[in-house]
Design a protein that fits this description.
This is Beta-fructofuranosidase, insoluble isoenzyme 3. By secondary structure, the protein is mostly beta strands. The protein has 4 helices and 39 strands. A hairpin with a 2-residue loop joins strand 31 and strand 32. The protein is globular. The protein binds 2-acetamido-2-deoxy-beta-D-glucopyranose (5 copies).
Length: 587
């Protein structure tokens, strides 16, 4: 039963001391954080969880608030996911490390929280961190603790019992913190250690997010250790950029120049590029650059095609933050986890009893053009595909639309390929929008008539189309090239007016002059629309809360508001089954 508090009671008893500290936090407030703090809502959980728009197949606990994915790892036949979790309410606060295990990254069983405040070095919070698998298959977690002085410090934790494949219990040695904020560092901007990589010069290396106040410079501070216990800060950061503000949840890893295979985080050498990702607190989005890691200098330099600021590349141009990758040694791939928050109001979140999900884990690899990464839902996701419909060679005429019938589309997976026979009607691109897709799509909605496009999907639509979320492409001319935009327009997603409905958009780096076609895959899960354009080149996630288009009343349409006909050469849609989602708790 989702509606009961009982499931947590043995754990509550076990950590009564911790609960006592939580009530201290609740009354006093507040730990400095990048989250808005709603003090009165932090500990108020309703007696039942409102299932109406609740996601079914995206990762989430039975109830309450979650944010960042933490320490993903594989150990003795199980994938582990930890996550920032409020056990008492559905706004941010009282943060512990929730913990779940899976054999396929899709079906999950819950464990009791792995790391929670209990020592002077983390008594005011256990914030984000990462796992590293040390030689001999020994996992170690490094995380940010909030200490008795409310400073951010980095702590280490080890499994209590390496024979336990569930890694239920974690030990935090008394020599913590292993990385305190030294003089000169702002102890409110010092968090989120990464997975460490082994530098051939003989040391473990990792980075920590930081900001230098003088020039608002975001930084990836570099730390080294020979034994993983004693850590020393290097003089220079791995990388930094002025005016970028606090870098949260950095991630740093190698990608192969060719092919989809992932690499262990310690792989260094001629056949790889490196990815540096940071979550910018200023904008609340995740950005990455591709570049070169010099392991002698311990420096990273972005390549000249990667913009090193918040006009740069994003994993996802929508609601996606605090992401983290890990290397999967079973299927030899790198997997990306990212968090999506709600767009509803904190009061409503609190009344519903749930807030936040992790998006479908994505396999991530380098495009052969070397300029960007590609992402695709892990193959295991396809095991949830159920009832299927398909459409082939159907015209989406200029100004027209058709409904995709015979499946219930509120929880669905839709793959569609559009053929664009003629690009002549493409309008000239207004160059003032170069680098700013989102501003463009904010002005030019799904209803703005165009030359080639907008064409795409209306999802979570009411039968009369009063409610609908549009995911679409629009194509322009820029000299003798084409500019392709992908947009997610939720402005008509619900009749409710109190909801945050940002339009999201990204450019799609495709050459339409050769193959005049473009594909879209969209995962729909009641209040989530997660889309992958052009086989994973541009991804956009959005949270929407229809008032009418719920359950069986949610419809799916293909539309074309351009002046040029397009053809749906292929469309496949599946209903998606609900996996096991943390209902069962293993103590
Ligand atoms: C360690 O875990 C194994 C496997 O779950 C279990 O059999 C054993 O009793 C555990 N040891 C301790 C000391 O808890
Ligand atoms: C330290 O960082 C915090 C959080 O960004 C900021 O509010 C504070 O002003 C900074 N302290 C100094 C001395 O600049
Ligand atoms: C980027 O660097 C490559 C060599 O790595 C060079 O061929 C290319 O001209 C450079 N592009 C720009 C825009 O500087
Ligand atoms: C990012 O850098 C590029 C190239 O230097 C520049 O054209 C662009 O304006 C910058 N964007 C922001 C938001 O600073
Ligand atoms: C998610 O919530 C919206 C408001 O509903 C905020 O505007 C975003 O900043 C927030 N995103 C993150 C990553 O916290």
């Amino acid at each position: 039963m989702e509606t009961s508090n009982r499931v947590f009671s043995p754990w509550f008893l076990a950590i009564a001391v911790y609960a006592c500290f939580c009530s201290m936090i609740r009354e006093r407030i507040a730990v400095e954080s990048s989250h808005v703090v709603y003090e009165t809502l932090q500990g108020s959980s309703p007696s039942s969880v409102d299932p109406t728009l609740r996601t079914g197949y995206h990762f989430r606990p039975p109830r309450n608030w979650i944010n960042d994915p933490n320490g993903p790892l594989y150990y003795k036949d199980f994938y582990h996911l930890f996550y920032q979790y409020n056990p008492y309410g559905s706004v941010w606060g009282n943060i512990v490390w929730g913990h779940s295990i899976s054999t396929d990254l899709i079906n999950w069983k819950a464990l009791t929280p792995a790391i929670y405040p209990s020592k002077p070095f983390d008594i005011f919070g256990c914030w984000s961190g990462s796992a590293t698998i040390l030689p001999g298959d020994k996992p170690a977690i490094l995380y940010t603790g909030i200490d008795t002085q409310k400073r951010q410090v980095q702590n280490i934790a080890f499994p209590a019992n390496l024979s336990d494949p569930y890694l239920r219990e974690w030990v935090k040695p008394d020599y913590n913190p292993v990385m305190p904020p030294e003089t000169g560092l702002n102890s409110s901007s010092f968090r989120d250690p990464t997975t460490a990589w082994y530098n051939p010069n003989g040391h473990w290396t990792l980075i920590i997010g930081n900001k230098r106040d003088a020039d608002n410079r975001g930084m990836a501070l570099l730390y080294r250790s020979k034994d993983f216990v004693k850590w020393v800060r290097a003089k220079h950061p791995l990388h930094s950029a002025k005016n970028s503000g606090m870098w949260e949840c950095p991630d740093f890893y190698p990608v192969a120049l060719r092919g989809k295979l992932g690499l262990d985080t310690s792989v260094i050498g001629a056949g790889v590029k490196h990815v540096l990702k940071m979550s910018l607190d200023l904008t609340r989005y995740d950005y990455y650059t591709l570049g070169k890691y010099d392991d002698n200098l311990d420096k990273y330099v972005p390549q000249n095609t990667s913009l090193d600021n918040h006009s740069g590349l994003r994993y996802d141009y929508g609601n996606f933050y605090a992401s983290k990758t890990f290397y999967d040694p079973v299927k030899l791939r790198r997997i990306l986890w990212g968090w999506a928050n709600e767009s509803d109001t904190p009061k409503v979140d609190s009344d519903k009893g749930w807030a936040g999900i992790q998006l479908i884990p994505r396999t991530i690899w380098l495009h052969r053009n070397g300029r960007q990464l590609l992402q695709w839902p892990i193959e295991e996701f396809d095991t949830l595909r159920h009832k299927h419909v398909s459409v082939a060679n159907k015209l989406a005429p200029a100004g027209g639309l058709f409904e995709v019938k015979d499946i219930q589309s509120n929880q669905a997976d839709v793959e569609i390929t559009f053929d664009i026979p003629n690009l002549d009607k493409a309008e000239d691109f207004d160059r003032s929008y170069i680098g700013n897709a989102q501003a463009f799509c904010g002005k030019n909605t799904a209803e703005t008539k165009g030359g080639v496009g907008p064409f795409g999907l209306y999802v979570l639509a009411s039968s009369d189309l009063e409610e609908r979320t549009a995911v679409f492409f629009k194509i322009f001319k820029n000299g003798n090239k084409h500019v392709v935009l992908m947009c997610n327009d939720p402005t008509r997603s619900t009749k409710r007016e109190d909801i945050y409905k940002p339009t999201f958009a990204g450019f799609v780096d495709v050459d339409l002059s050769k193959a005049k076609r473009i594909s879209l895959r969209t995962l729909i899960d009641n209040s989530v629309v997660e889309s992958f354009g052009a086989r994973g080149k541009t991804c956009i996630t959005s949270r929407v809360y229809p008032a009418v288009a719920i359950g069986k009343d949610a419809h799916l349409f293909v539309f074309n508001n351009g002046a040029e006909d397009v053809k749906v050469s292929e469309l496949n849609a599946w209903e998606i089954r609900k996996p096991e989602m943390n209902q069962e708790i293993i103590y």
